[in-house]
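Course assignment 3, question 2. Fill in each field.
Student: A.L.
Task: Predict the tertiary structure for the chain below.
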Amino acid sequence: MYKHVLVTGGAGYIGSHMVKMLHSNGIEVTTLDNLSTGHRNAVKYGRFIEGDLNNSHDLTQLFQSYRFDSVMHFSACSLVGESMLNPDKYFRNNVCGTLNLLQEMNKHNVKKFIFSSSAAVYGQPNTELISELAEKKPINPYGKSKLIVELMLEDFATAYSLNSVSLRYFNAAGADSEGELGERHDPETHLIPNVLKAANRSIGPIKLFGNDYNTHDGTCVRDYIHVEDLCNAHLKALSYLGTNTGAFQFNLGNSKGYSVLDILNAAEAVVGEPIPSEIVGRRPGDPDTLVADSRLAQKELNWKPVYTDMKEIIKTAWDWMN
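Answer field:
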């Protein structure tokens, strides 16, 4: 079993939940985070080290000080719109930073790597249910940066026997079931936390971007997965690398689509009152429907989402927010 896991980006939303899950499974965990978007007080377990993947001194010192069995990599800039305006930042952080990390792992013979990838690698697929075989045509620098890393990992597996699993997330949602951790981006761009902020009146009416899509109610349809189900898949991926060699990619989602209005209606059921909203114009580049085919992850990783009801997912976020 894994004795010591390095979690990069462990002060962020998904990373902090991962740190807690590793700790609760008896695994020693060290977080490396530069706190550019993460929160120091979100790292409630294990060791915390402030450092940057683009600072070679930070990485050298870290790997000389501790012996890691494996690395889980959550450090990334992840705002699609920002990536269009500032691609330099995305390639420097997401690609160069990851390369620095892989080089350091190689030097210290750390051979297991779990990569936080994204459905953004697919771009705008022409199929409603997206499998791993769908064409990879990212339409923004964020998605391109994730795909470049996946391609690097394939070459590192061949050349250096570095074994990896890239997990392509659809939409992470919800909060720690014990109410200890949750989602707090600044600025917040994700639908569910913004709907709940509109519900408790900490922001104005939630903006619904477009109601003329080719879906059952005219609003975009997306796949949402609870953050604890996501983290559980990472644990399963670690076990998978115990017996499998190479570079692997899996989609993580519920394989079920919810429209923006479905989310709003589910949130209203959770909070018990209408939530102020307004329809505004479409955003460029938003596909009608993006839903994961996650059967491969279920089969290969022996993983299955526990949270399949949207009201349950939203309730964990609402409980944490309150």
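Instructor remarks: The first helix runs from residue 13 to 24. Residues 107 and 222 are 41 Å apart (CA to CA).
Grade: pending
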